[in-house]
Amino acid sequence: MDALIEEAAALAGAAAPDVQVLRAEQVTWSDGSLGCPEPGMVYTQALVDGYWVVLEVGGETYDFRMSDSGTPRLCPAGEGRPPLEGPGTDY
Prior knowledge:
The protein has 91 residues and is mostly beta strands. The chain has one domain (2-75). The protein has one helix at residues 2-12; strands at residues 20-29, 48-57, 60-67, 73-75. A 4-stranded antiparallel β-sheet has the order 1-2-3-4, covered by helices on one side. The protein is elongated and about 40 Å long.
């Protein structure tokens, strides 16, 4: 989480203490795109356990997605889909 907070702060040109956590939860994504497909890419068509972290700083929202074993990806604003509904989801 600290690395994501530092990244959001750097992107916003702000200090880490200015970053607010809006969402941080374990989720299941519907496929390997983690709800944020890139044009021209091919993704695993299987359920993917992972995490969804949304941070806010300086009026900007940063939507990070990752699988259990993957590196966090920043999903461009307005381009992501939510994970599958189920126990532990919060939306």
